[in-house]
Amino acid sequence: MPEPTKTRILLADDHALVRRGVRLILDSEPDLTVVAEAGDGAEAIEAARTTQPDLAILDIAMPRLTGLQAARELSRTQPDLRILILTMYDNEQYFFEALKAGAAGYVLKSVADRDLVEACRATMRDEPFIYPGAINALIRNYLDRAKDGANLPAKAITDREEEILKLVAEGHTSQEIADLLVISVKTVERHRANLLQKLGLKDRLELTRYAIRAGLIEP
């Protein structure tokens, strides 16, 4: 029998132990192989660019760029790349954000040993992978919207402002943020001032608290 074509996978999680465990699950399957690993969202984007995988599995809570931020960028720059979000958060808001960011599925780390392989295969067949709790959320959301005749609420801040908020909260200076995002320091400062004004916050400490509540960084 011919060797099955393997799905080439990029795995991004800031915990090396989690990556090792997930990699063991994936590499033991005949049709899946991990070709690159990354420890944060920015590394994931770079690794995807250099290795051109078929599928990216991204943890949500990573330093520098979250999995959702990386997913948005990868969807824009590599539209053929399939994306799965791996998370410890059974959270409806994250689930909807993941779909909006271009992910085909959302897998909980607590049941990754059971769901992840099937999620990879479903994604490569162009089928969404939705865990049971999320199906309830989708149905409830649809019914609520149908009842109210309303769309999903818009996000308070733009994707770029979210990137800058996260980096400010992680303690990066304006110069470091400018270098990371390849923009000018003046642009960083303008975004930062807009964030404070939009969110009604006073300083970096309050921005950091907001970033933790929004799930952009871990406390």
Automatic annotation (TrEMBL):
The keyword Chloroplast does not apply. It comes from the Bacteria. It holds the Pfam family Response_reg. Gene3D superfamilies: 3.40.50.2300. CDD domains: LuxR_C_like, REC_NarL-like. Residues 150-215 form the HTH luxR-type domain. Residues 8-124 form the Response regulatory domain. InterPro entries: CheY-like_superfamily, NreC/VraR/RcsB-like_REC, Sig_transdc_resp-reg_C-effctor, Sig_transdc_resp-reg_receiver, Tscrpt_reg_LuxR_C, WalR-like. The modification 4-aspartylphosphate is found at D59. The keyword Transcription applies. Keywords: DNA-binding, Phosphoprotein, Transcription, Transcription regulation. This is Response regulator transcription factor.
